[in-house]
Amino acid sequence: MKSYFGKYGGMFVPETLVPALQELEAAYSKYSIGKEFQDEFANYLTNYAGRETPLYYAKSLSDKCSGAKIYLKREDLLHTGAHKINNALGQALLAKKMGKKRLIAETGAGQHGVATATVAALFGMECIIYMGETDVQRQAPNVYRMKLLGATVNVVSSGSKTLKDAINEALRDYAANFQNTHYLIGSALGPHPYPTMVRDFQKIIGVEARKQILEAERQLPDMLVACVGGGSNSIGLFHPFLQDNIEMVGVEAGGNGKLHAARLCGDGKPGVLHGMMSYLLQDKYGQIKDTYSISAGLDYPAVGPEHSALKEKRMVKYTAVQDEDALKAFHLLSSSEGIIPALESAHAVAYAIEAAKHLGKGKIILVNLSGRGDKDIEHVQRLESNNIIKVK
Amino acid sequence: MHIFKDKNAAFLPYICCGDPSADFTVKLAKTLVNAGADAIELGIPFSDPIADGKTIQSASLRALENGIIPPKALEVLDRIRKEGVKIPIIIMTYYNIILANGGTKFLKNAKIAGANAVIVPDVPLEESDSLEEMCRNNELGLVRMVSISSDEKRLKAISKKADCFVYVVAELGTTGARENVNDNAIALVKRAKSLFYVPVVIGFGISKPEHVTTFIKAGADGIIVGSAIIDIYSKYISGEKTKTINEKSALEEMEKFAKAMKNACMR
What we know:
Number of strands of chain B: 11
Order of helices and strands of chain B: EHEHHEHHEHEEHEHEHEHEEH
Radius of gyration of chain B: 17 Å
Largest sheet of chain B: 9 strands, parallel
Largest sheet of chain A: 6 strands, mixed
Order of helices and strands of chain A: EEHHEHEHEHEHHEHEHHEHEHEEHEHHEH
Strand content of chain A: 15-25%
Distance between the termini of chain B: 19 Å
Oligomer: heterodimer
Distance between the termini of chain A: 50 Å
Number of strands of chain A: 14
Structural class of chain A: alpha/beta
Radius of gyration of chain A: 19 Å
Helix content of chain B: 40-55%
Strand order of the largest sheet of chain B: 5-4-3-2-1-9-8-7-6
Helix content of chain A: 40-55%
Mean pLDDT of chain A: 95
Strand order of the largest sheet of chain A: 3-4-14-9-10-13
């Protein structure tokens, strides 16, 4: 199995973890191609998670833009509320085959933590979730959901107290406990084989979307849009379209303009963090920078290595949307379609709204609505009622 | 390395450069040398040290807050040399620090400042070609690590690349002082002794002279002590934003501890 995407990827971990990752790679190679595993995975995706998800033509939103047609891939309708469950089911099944009794995971927005806690409950495994202190505060409902599902939530107070630090802690736990523990990484990042494995578990998004748009419109879309935190929902959507020569746009967090998490379209530089070579937000001496975004799921200083390779090959365009525009899209999609998007996904919606105006009539934009906004409601309400952010 | 030539085991303390100040690091190095250290592992702090436990994480953070950028860390190394410290100094840092600060150019400057070798915990055998070349070009040793989880095949592959000494990681997980020595670590020291031509040095978790005695009985040629050293001097650090340290007391206690550890290295 290839461990690099061009120059990016690899397995930059302490020696202790190399045998653990090699064991994981071997198990993944062995089981994932087998019919038994694929059937079991497909069964859980359909009957437990709720696939396939609809591809919905957002007519009212499109009309408001008076331009291109906007289609939404409704990953928000999945069990637990986001695309994260696809990967969590895949990895948990694999962990079970490997005889692991304990699942650990990092989480930013809490969606991946909830997905992991959910599959741990489903398969009767012990579950520990690492979550940064800042994220625990802004995603309180998800913390309770994880506990309700039987998981232990370990609050991480080191460094920037967000996703980056939660990953550090999870990697440390994994190194100490890999003999009975699987580290269920939530995005297409980290050391090999995670970026490949997570992408494979998320590819279903693009496979379905491609088939659905061909059925609905008898043509492929003119543009694909997805938000990019670690990059799993976007790579899941983009990957099955890579040979189609379609414009693809990955939307990063523009934050408040000054502080952000724009690694690929901003001032990120290649480096090594969390086991991989990829674009990172770092200072000139290689210390990892603090990032900021209104959405916890995009608030991360590195990005999955396949995105770094796609950027350099110019196969995907990376851009950023700021908090305020994401919030406007959050409101607009809610009021025009009755769909409350996750703040992460709202970044993609915000870009699509502008792109629809520019592309004009007769064009088709397909947006991955990666998650629902229930988890964000309290946070947004607090920001708005305290006038921290005002949507004009 | 010549430090392994006599019959006694070598004592290699780890210190975190710039914690809580550059001045203290220089004094600490001298104190450790006077107490009998055979080499010093000098940590250049990184914001995200995944191989390290709480103690070294906190030390790294204090050093970073104190403004120890990598070029300054090399200045500290240079100062330690100018103070007359002659024993080998091995730089311990993470790969991103080397890459972001110029790669081979950074290692060249490290060599000029007085480094003899480097340890980079997040670069395992499979990813080490480029780092190995950079080290070779600058006549710096590249210390390899082996773990309890490394099987026979990996140990043999790593032994072919071994340079200076092999760093046996005594614990799964991270650095940090432990109460007891684990049996797997003792077994690994013995395996490494039979497979490696270079000296076998053990680190992670070692905090007491009894630990040292146990590992030396198992055949270790040297011991690395890091977190236990930081645990001792950090008790004397105070202050919220700007950290100060009661140097006299910290160094006195350090000297006592280092002497006891060195004494346990005697055969």
